Amino acid sequence: MTDLYQSQRAMRNMRQAAMQRGVTAILDVGTSKIACLVLRFDGPELEREDGLGPLAGQSQFRVIGAATTRSRGVRFGEIHTMQETERAIRTAVQAAQKMAQVRVDHVIACFSGAHPRSYGLAGDVQLTEGQVSETDVARVLAACDVPDFGQGREVLHAHPVNFAVDHRTGFGDPRGHVGNRLAVDMHLLTIDTPAVQNLLYCIKRCDLELAGLASSAYVSGLASLVEDEQELGAACIDMGGGATGISIFIKKHMIFAESARLGGDHVTGDIAKGLQVPVPVAERIKTIHGGVHATGMDDREMIEIGGDSGDWEKDRRKVSRTELIGIMRPRVEEILEEVRAILDAAGFDQLPSQQIVLTGGASQIPGLDGLAARILGQNVRLGRPLRVQGLPQAATGPAFSSSVGLCLFAAHPQDEWWDFEIPAERYPARSLRRAVRWFKDNW
């Protein structure tokens, strides 16, 4: 944990240095596309009223460069072929730099795979001076008993969700409150270490420095959920190409995140196999003619498949839209059933508001919201990312939710465990407590 704490603090310092220089880049490494946005920060960081800690500031920013390229070498949201992914990242970053007419050295990246897993932590300390100070916040965060999540996994996010002073609870920022005891509830998100290391290696090979890392499920929720949904409780379903990210928010904090290894590319693969066509042709058919609800009209609507196989008969085949929907619907239902199982395991039905927001490129299939309402619950809507100043019109669709959310994450970071000056001897709180317990039992 000590190494992780130091590396996260180093990334925070790099992010602040990039913001002081005025320019940083956003990199969304997805299965179907890699998007790069170049941000220019205009104004100084201001103190946020409902925030906590030194980084809870707001900074005015503007998108001055944007580029996307087809993702290569990424499967299920994780890097599969290193050289291909490196080439795709270089292509996207260079195109965005050319549009912005500026060179960037630091990137803040997000990805959707790596098997995210959520933990709920709790900690409490006695207040020495009777009033909560910055040091007390650091102490109570360090007092959380970190679970043994096993070898080969790292903490990606560690958000303090709720603070309590004595019997009073629900504080977002407890500093200055008078009491005898301070308690905290924290959400911890862990991911597979090799996935992070592969991404770090690719970014290093592109002569860039990693100044921040985030989960796509988290940043998609930041961009797609409106303020009331984040406050009252909502789930964001980010349906990407190779993975579907699920995040749950309440009181403006993420309290759960998970990923299903199914996405829009699996629907495309089913069309390619069912109709015996190449994957690019299947993607075009899905985009133009796809759907999940068949009507009487669809039997008579014929789709020209086309192709370049050289066989005249095969290249001029036609299928009805009903046949296409019959191929697509079972896979879409499977994805939604997987999401339903994850939401049930997370206890989503216990939240006061059970709003579900669908976003991501695969959420644009016609009729998906109606099918999702039957499988997931009645309160389903399609979400688009917030409008960001300078964002090109082509990058305002649901497919860019994680990219826009990463911009908001860069400019308005939520405080995490490593944003506080925790004493060095308190980093591995778990091992310290274990040692104390052992001494009590054995002496």
From TrEMBL:
Pfam families: FtsA, SHS2_FTSA. Residues 24-224 form the SHS2 domain. Keywords: Cell cycle, Cell division, Cell membrane, Membrane. It comes from the Bacteria. Coiled coil: none annotated. It is found in: Cell membrane. The keyword Ribosomal protein does not apply. SMART domains: FtsA. Gene3D superfamilies: 3.30.420.40. GO terms for biological process: cell division. It is a peripheral membrane protein. Belongs to the FtsA/MreB family. PANTHER family: CELL DIVISION PROTEIN FTSA, CELL DIVISION PROTEIN FTSA-RELATED. NCBIfam families: ftsA (TIGR01174). Cell division protein that is involved in the assembly of the Z ring. May serve as a membrane anchor for the Z ring. Self-interacts. Interacts with FtsZ. This is Cell division protein FtsA. The gene is ftsA.
